[in-house]
Amino acid sequence: MAQSDVSNWTEVAEDWIAWVRAEGHDAFWAYRDAFEQFVGQGVGAGLEIGAGEGRICRVLQGLGYNMTALEPVAALLEAARAANSATTYIDASATDLPLASESFDLVVLYNVLMDVDDLDASAKEAARVLTLEGRIIVGIVHPIFDVHMAWKSGETPPPYFEPQVLDTEVAANGLQMRFRGWTRPLSAYVNGLANAGLFVSRMEEPRPDPDHPATLRLTERNSVPTFLWLELRRFSHSNET
Ligand SMILES: C[S@@+](CC[C@H](N)C(=O)[O-])C[C@H]1O[C@@H](n2cnc3c(N)ncnc32)[C@H](O)[C@@H]1O
Q1: 73, 96, 115, best to mutate for ligand 1 pocket (most atoms within 8 Å of CB)
Q2: CA nearest to 230, candidates 111, 105, 101
Q3: Ligand 1 centroid distance, CA of 48 (Å)
Q4: Relative to the CA of 20, which ligand 1 atom is closest?
Q5: Where are the alpha helices (DSSP H) in 89-185?
Q6: Residues 6+ apart with CB under 8 A from 80
Q7: Which residues of the chain register pLDDT less than 50?
Q8: Ligand 1 and 72: CB distance under 6 A
């Protein structure tokens, strides 16, 4: 099945804005404090690739970074701008960044790499714009969570090893969202990033705030990891042959 990451997200832009901005609804808010600790306070130029309506940029600005929000869906980029999420806004795809090499101290891809059609090109572009001493923060839906969800709703064990198209509709709290993207094995992420010249310097399988409404609603989040966070740095030379 042909995928088009940007057109998929263009179709659901308004649903996504409502989904992430509803008080206590989206799971991220139960992980926000842990995410802030994972990234830590800092200074310098930050870039979020696939910034959506800007919530992660707003968190990163709060940590001290001077953020650029990059997002290919016009309605989302405008929502990010209207919420004063960053200092600079760029309409572009992860696969072709209109940015100078080695120009950002922090590059963040939060819940984006499982949505892009071309993981390897996105990883290479993110690595290219990172300073030599910089860090990349990647958040993905944990591949084990994809397996868990598919197994829960299916009759046969879901395939893990090959990338699969993900297309699922979720409704809760009077909100709806269609999530389309990919389930990929963990090795696809780590090796895609390694081929871009990056190594994992830290990894977190975060636990949600136990008292948050999203945690209480989705009880499996207490026992199965929902997200996986990676901190990556540049090899002094490319790992690619
Ligand atoms: C799950 S949302 C995450 C948004 C934001 N990072 C957040 O956590 O709120 C996925 C985002 O990836 C963006 N996206 C999809 N394809 C993309 C591409 N090729 N390049 C950059 N961003 C892309 C979508 O438009 C959407 O904003």
Answers
A1: 115
A2: 111
A3: 10
A4: 9
A5: 119-128, 143-153
A6: 51, 52, 53, 54, 57, 69, 71, 86, 89
A7: 1, 241
A8: yes
Pick the closest to residue 36 from 67, 64, 71, 70 (CA basis): 64
Length of the chain: 241
Q: Ligand 1 pocket: which of 6, 12, 112, 124 to mutate (most atoms <8 Å of CB)? A: 112
Structural domains in the chain, sorted by start: 5-142+188-234 (3.40.50.150)
Within 10 angstroms of residue 29's Cβ, the number of other Cβ atoms is 19
Evaluate: CB of 115 within 6 angstroms of ligand 1.
yes
- Of ligand 1's atoms, which has the minimum distance to the CA of residue 16? 2
CA dist., res. 184 & res. 62, Å (int): 32
Both structure tokens of 238? 């490319």
Relative to the CA of 10, which ligand 1 atom is closest? 25
Name 238's Cβ contacts closer than 8 Å, sequence gap at least 6: 197
- Nearest CA, atom 10, ligand 1: 112
* Alpha carbon nearest to ligand 1 atom 4, residue: 52
Compute the distance between CA of residue 184 and CA of residue 145 in angstroms, rounded to an integer. Answer: 11
**pLDDT recorded at residue 237:** 56
**Residue 68 C-beta-side C-alpha neighbours within 13 Å:** 18
Locate 47 and state its tokens.
Answer: 């870039």
